[in-house]
Amino acid sequence: MPPPTPWKNGYNLDLLFNLSISTGIVPQQWKIACIISIPKVVHPAESSDYRPISITPILSRMLERRIVRAYIYPALQTPPLGLNFTDQFAFRPTGSTDAALITLLHTVFTMLDTQPFVRVFALDFSKAYDTVRHEVLMEKMARLVLPDAVYNWIKDVFSGHSHCTRFERDTSELADILASIIQGSASDLQPMDVGNALVKFADDTYIIVSAVNSDTSASELRHVQDWAETNNLKLNCLKSKEIIFAGRGARNKTVTFPSACLGISQVRSITALDLNPLQGYDLSYMMGRRPTPQQFEH
Q: Which of 64, 139, 159, 208 is deepest in the core (most CB within 10 A)?
Protein backbone atom coordinates (compact mmCIF):
# COMPACT_ATOMS: atom_id res chain seq x y z
CA MET A 1 0.00 0.00 0.00
CA PRO A 2 1.47 3.39 -0.98
CA PRO A 3 2.16 5.89 1.80
CA PRO A 4 -0.51 8.56 2.38
CA THR A 5 -0.14 11.68 0.29
CA PRO A 6 0.50 15.02 2.03
CA TRP A 7 -3.01 16.11 1.07
CA LYS A 8 -4.56 13.21 2.91
CA ASN A 9 -2.85 14.10 6.17
CA GLY A 10 -3.88 17.73 5.83
CA TYR A 11 -0.38 19.08 5.10
CA ASN A 12 -1.32 20.96 1.94
CA LEU A 13 -4.51 22.31 3.50
CA ASP A 14 -2.60 23.58 6.53
CA LEU A 15 -0.02 25.15 4.23
CA LEU A 16 -2.76 26.88 2.26
CA PHE A 17 -4.40 28.25 5.43
CA ASN A 18 -1.11 29.52 6.86
CA LEU A 19 -0.24 31.20 3.57
CA SER A 20 -3.64 32.91 3.47
CA ILE A 21 -3.22 34.21 7.04
CA SER A 22 0.39 35.34 6.68
CA THR A 23 -0.32 37.27 3.47
CA GLY A 24 -3.69 38.62 4.64
CA ILE A 25 -5.26 37.47 1.39
CA VAL A 26 -8.46 35.45 1.06
CA PRO A 27 -9.00 33.64 -2.27
CA GLN A 28 -11.78 35.31 -4.22
CA GLN A 29 -13.62 32.01 -4.62
CA TRP A 30 -13.97 31.86 -0.83
CA LYS A 31 -15.79 35.19 -0.79
CA ILE A 32 -18.75 34.07 -2.88
CA ALA A 33 -21.90 32.92 -1.11
CA CYS A 34 -25.07 31.45 -2.50
CA ILE A 35 -28.35 32.26 -0.78
CA ILE A 36 -31.05 29.62 -0.91
CA SER A 37 -34.58 29.77 0.48
CA ILE A 38 -35.83 27.30 3.06
CA PRO A 39 -39.63 27.21 3.63
CA LYS A 40 -40.70 28.18 7.14
CA VAL A 41 -44.22 26.79 6.63
CA VAL A 42 -45.57 23.67 4.97
CA HIS A 43 -47.17 25.52 2.06
CA PRO A 44 -45.26 28.77 1.44
CA ALA A 45 -47.29 31.38 -0.45
CA GLU A 46 -45.19 34.55 -0.24
CA SER A 47 -41.59 35.63 0.21
CA SER A 48 -41.93 36.04 3.99
CA ASP A 49 -42.71 32.32 4.22
CA TYR A 50 -39.08 31.54 3.34
CA ARG A 51 -35.92 31.78 5.43
CA PRO A 52 -32.79 32.80 3.51
CA ILE A 53 -29.75 30.61 4.18
CA SER A 54 -26.30 31.72 3.02
CA ILE A 55 -24.15 28.84 1.75
CA THR A 56 -20.43 29.64 1.91
CA PRO A 57 -17.41 27.56 0.77
CA ILE A 58 -16.36 24.89 3.24
CA LEU A 59 -12.69 25.95 3.15
CA SER A 60 -13.69 29.49 4.01
CA ARG A 61 -15.71 28.30 7.02
CA MET A 62 -12.84 26.08 8.20
CA LEU A 63 -10.35 28.93 8.14
CA GLU A 64 -12.82 31.36 9.72
CA ARG A 65 -13.24 28.89 12.58
CA ARG A 66 -9.47 28.76 13.06
CA ILE A 67 -9.21 32.58 13.07
CA VAL A 68 -12.02 32.89 15.61
CA ARG A 69 -10.70 30.25 17.99
CA ALA A 70 -7.01 31.12 17.79
CA TYR A 71 -7.19 34.91 17.67
CA ILE A 72 -10.60 36.54 18.13
CA TYR A 73 -11.75 34.58 21.21
CA PRO A 74 -8.53 35.34 23.13
CA ALA A 75 -8.72 39.02 22.09
CA LEU A 76 -12.27 39.28 23.44
CA GLN A 77 -11.08 38.04 26.85
CA THR A 78 -8.92 41.15 27.31
CA PRO A 79 -10.70 43.88 25.33
CA PRO A 80 -9.45 47.47 25.32
CA LEU A 81 -11.11 50.23 27.31
CA GLY A 82 -14.57 50.94 25.94
CA LEU A 83 -15.16 47.43 24.61
CA ASN A 84 -16.67 44.95 27.06
CA PHE A 85 -18.17 41.60 26.11
CA THR A 86 -18.65 39.93 29.50
CA ASP A 87 -22.43 40.33 29.18
CA GLN A 88 -22.51 38.56 25.78
CA PHE A 89 -23.26 34.83 26.13
CA ALA A 90 -23.64 33.73 22.51
CA PHE A 91 -21.11 31.93 20.33
CA ARG A 92 -18.42 31.77 22.99
CA PRO A 93 -16.70 28.67 24.38
CA THR A 94 -18.33 29.10 27.80
CA GLY A 95 -21.53 30.84 26.69
CA SER A 96 -25.01 29.37 26.42
CA THR A 97 -28.67 30.27 26.71
CA ASP A 98 -28.67 28.66 30.16
CA ALA A 99 -25.82 30.91 31.31
CA ALA A 100 -27.59 33.98 29.91
CA LEU A 101 -30.89 33.08 31.56
CA ILE A 102 -29.26 32.33 34.92
CA THR A 103 -27.45 35.67 34.81
CA LEU A 104 -30.67 37.47 33.90
CA LEU A 105 -32.63 35.90 36.76
CA HIS A 106 -29.79 36.31 39.26
CA THR A 107 -29.55 40.01 38.43
CA VAL A 108 -33.32 40.47 38.84
CA PHE A 109 -33.44 38.58 42.16
CA THR A 110 -30.41 40.46 43.50
CA MET A 111 -32.02 43.81 42.71
CA LEU A 112 -35.32 42.69 44.27
CA ASP A 113 -33.51 42.09 47.58
CA THR A 114 -33.38 45.85 48.09
CA GLN A 115 -35.84 47.26 45.54
CA PRO A 116 -39.66 47.05 45.31
CA PHE A 117 -39.58 46.24 41.58
CA VAL A 118 -37.29 45.68 38.63
CA ARG A 119 -37.92 46.61 35.00
CA VAL A 120 -36.71 44.28 32.23
CA PHE A 121 -36.73 45.50 28.63
CA ALA A 122 -36.50 42.84 25.93
CA LEU A 123 -35.16 44.72 22.91
CA ASP A 124 -35.66 43.89 19.26
CA PHE A 125 -33.35 45.14 16.52
CA SER A 126 -34.70 45.10 12.98
CA LYS A 127 -32.62 42.73 10.80
CA ALA A 128 -29.81 43.03 13.29
CA TYR A 129 -27.09 41.32 11.26
CA ASP A 130 -28.05 42.55 7.81
CA THR A 131 -27.30 46.26 8.07
CA VAL A 132 -24.04 46.61 10.03
CA ARG A 133 -21.50 48.42 7.85
CA HIS A 134 -18.19 46.65 7.43
CA GLU A 135 -16.14 49.80 8.04
CA VAL A 136 -17.82 50.27 11.44
CA LEU A 137 -17.00 46.68 12.37
CA MET A 138 -13.38 47.02 11.24
CA GLU A 139 -12.93 50.18 13.33
CA LYS A 140 -13.77 48.10 16.39
CA MET A 141 -11.66 45.15 15.24
CA ALA A 142 -8.69 47.51 14.95
CA ARG A 143 -8.95 48.17 18.70
CA LEU A 144 -8.54 44.50 19.59
CA VAL A 145 -5.13 42.98 20.24
CA LEU A 146 -4.72 41.07 16.99
CA PRO A 147 -1.65 40.34 14.83
CA ASP A 148 -1.46 42.66 11.85
CA ALA A 149 -1.69 39.75 9.44
CA VAL A 150 -4.89 38.51 11.10
CA TYR A 151 -6.46 41.97 11.02
CA ASN A 152 -5.55 42.30 7.34
CA TRP A 153 -7.05 38.86 6.68
CA ILE A 154 -10.33 39.82 8.36
CA LYS A 155 -10.40 43.10 6.43
CA ASP A 156 -9.83 41.23 3.18
CA VAL A 157 -12.72 38.88 3.99
CA PHE A 158 -15.12 41.83 3.84
CA SER A 159 -13.51 43.30 0.74
CA GLY A 160 -14.96 42.13 -2.55
CA HIS A 161 -17.46 39.82 -0.89
CA SER A 162 -20.44 38.93 -3.09
CA HIS A 163 -23.42 36.62 -3.21
CA CYS A 164 -26.05 35.30 -5.54
CA THR A 165 -29.56 34.04 -4.87
CA ARG A 166 -30.83 30.67 -6.06
CA PHE A 167 -34.52 29.80 -6.14
CA GLU A 168 -35.59 26.52 -7.67
CA ARG A 169 -33.70 26.45 -10.99
CA ASP A 170 -32.99 30.17 -11.28
CA THR A 171 -29.78 31.84 -10.06
CA SER A 172 -29.25 35.58 -9.91
CA GLU A 173 -26.18 37.56 -10.89
CA LEU A 174 -23.54 38.20 -8.23
CA ALA A 175 -24.09 41.29 -6.07
CA ASP A 176 -21.52 43.01 -3.85
CA ILE A 177 -22.02 42.82 -0.08
CA LEU A 178 -21.29 46.15 1.60
CA ALA A 179 -23.05 45.46 4.89
CA SER A 180 -24.10 42.56 7.13
CA ILE A 181 -22.02 40.46 9.50
CA ILE A 182 -21.98 36.89 10.71
CA GLN A 183 -24.67 36.09 13.26
CA GLY A 184 -23.23 35.99 16.72
CA SER A 185 -20.78 38.84 16.25
CA ALA A 186 -20.29 40.44 19.63
CA SER A 187 -22.12 43.64 20.49
CA ASP A 188 -20.22 46.33 22.39
CA LEU A 189 -23.41 48.00 23.65
CA GLN A 190 -23.10 48.91 27.33
CA PRO A 191 -25.59 50.45 29.81
CA MET A 192 -25.36 54.20 30.22
CA ASP A 193 -26.02 54.14 33.98
CA VAL A 194 -23.70 51.99 36.10
CA GLY A 195 -26.66 50.86 38.23
CA ASN A 196 -28.36 49.21 35.24
CA ALA A 197 -27.38 45.90 33.67
CA LEU A 198 -27.35 44.25 30.26
CA VAL A 199 -27.63 40.59 29.30
CA LYS A 200 -27.06 39.64 25.65
CA PHE A 201 -27.31 36.46 23.67
CA ALA A 202 -26.40 37.25 20.05
CA ASP A 203 -28.85 40.06 19.19
CA ASP A 204 -31.29 39.19 22.03
CA THR A 205 -30.68 42.11 24.39
CA TYR A 206 -32.17 42.70 27.84
CA ILE A 207 -31.84 45.90 29.85
CA ILE A 208 -32.41 45.46 33.57
CA VAL A 209 -33.32 48.56 35.59
CA SER A 210 -34.04 48.59 39.32
CA ALA A 211 -36.72 50.78 40.91
CA VAL A 212 -34.21 53.32 42.20
CA ASN A 213 -33.01 53.84 38.62
CA SER A 214 -36.45 53.69 37.00
CA ASP A 215 -36.21 57.35 35.93
CA THR A 216 -33.17 56.46 33.80
CA SER A 217 -35.15 54.00 31.66
CA ALA A 218 -36.06 56.50 28.94
CA SER A 219 -32.52 57.87 28.68
CA GLU A 220 -31.17 54.31 28.70
CA LEU A 221 -33.40 53.39 25.77
CA ARG A 222 -32.44 56.55 23.90
CA HIS A 223 -28.81 55.58 24.48
CA VAL A 224 -29.56 52.24 22.82
CA GLN A 225 -31.20 54.04 19.91
CA ASP A 226 -28.13 56.26 19.49
CA TRP A 227 -25.81 53.25 19.62
CA ALA A 228 -27.97 51.44 17.07
CA GLU A 229 -27.95 54.43 14.72
CA THR A 230 -24.15 54.68 14.97
CA ASN A 231 -23.90 51.01 13.99
CA ASN A 232 -26.51 51.32 11.21
CA LEU A 233 -29.08 49.37 13.21
CA LYS A 234 -32.62 50.21 14.26
CA LEU A 235 -34.29 49.56 17.60
CA ASN A 236 -37.78 48.26 16.88
CA CYS A 237 -39.83 49.67 19.75
CA LEU A 238 -43.03 48.07 18.46
CA LYS A 239 -41.57 44.58 18.83
CA SER A 240 -39.63 45.32 22.02
CA LYS A 241 -41.35 44.49 25.31
CA GLU A 242 -41.12 45.42 28.98
CA ILE A 243 -42.02 43.30 31.98
CA ILE A 244 -41.93 44.45 35.61
CA PHE A 245 -41.04 42.09 38.45
CA ALA A 246 -41.90 42.96 42.05
CA GLY A 247 -40.64 41.59 45.32
CA ARG A 248 -42.95 39.82 47.74
CA GLY A 249 -43.07 42.86 49.99
CA ALA A 250 -44.58 44.95 47.20
CA ARG A 251 -47.90 43.10 47.55
CA ASN A 252 -48.37 44.52 51.03
CA LYS A 253 -47.44 48.06 50.05
CA THR A 254 -48.80 50.70 47.73
CA VAL A 255 -46.30 50.60 44.89
CA THR A 256 -46.63 52.87 41.90
CA PHE A 257 -45.38 51.08 38.82
CA PRO A 258 -43.80 53.19 36.07
CA SER A 259 -45.52 53.88 32.77
CA ALA A 260 -44.28 52.65 29.40
CA CYS A 261 -41.23 54.21 27.73
CA LEU A 262 -40.76 55.15 24.08
CA GLY A 263 -43.84 53.24 22.99
CA ILE A 264 -42.52 49.90 24.26
CA SER A 265 -45.45 47.76 25.41
CA GLN A 266 -45.63 46.55 28.99
CA VAL A 267 -46.63 42.90 29.12
CA ARG A 268 -47.38 40.26 31.75
CA SER A 269 -45.02 37.71 30.22
CA ILE A 270 -42.17 37.54 27.78
CA THR A 271 -40.27 34.69 26.18
CA ALA A 272 -36.63 35.10 27.13
CA LEU A 273 -34.03 33.92 24.61
CA ASP A 274 -36.85 32.30 22.62
CA LEU A 275 -36.73 29.43 25.08
CA ASN A 276 -38.16 30.13 28.49
CA PRO A 277 -41.28 32.04 29.53
CA LEU A 278 -40.83 34.60 32.29
CA GLN A 279 -44.18 35.27 33.92
CA GLY A 280 -44.86 37.91 36.58
CA TYR A 281 -47.97 38.99 38.43
CA ASP A 282 -46.84 42.61 38.77
CA LEU A 283 -48.60 44.17 35.79
CA SER A 284 -51.74 42.17 36.48
CA TYR A 285 -51.77 43.62 40.01
CA MET A 286 -51.23 47.11 38.64
CA MET A 287 -54.21 46.71 36.31
CA GLY A 288 -56.48 45.69 39.19
CA ARG A 289 -56.56 41.96 38.40
CA ARG A 290 -56.02 39.20 40.90
CA PRO A 291 -52.26 38.71 41.24
CA THR A 292 -50.78 35.28 40.58
CA PRO A 293 -47.53 34.00 42.11
CA GLN A 294 -44.44 35.24 40.38
CA GLN A 295 -43.00 32.43 38.29
CA PHE A 296 -39.64 31.86 36.69
CA GLU A 297 -39.84 28.66 34.70
CA HIS A 298 -36.59 27.16 33.49
A: 208
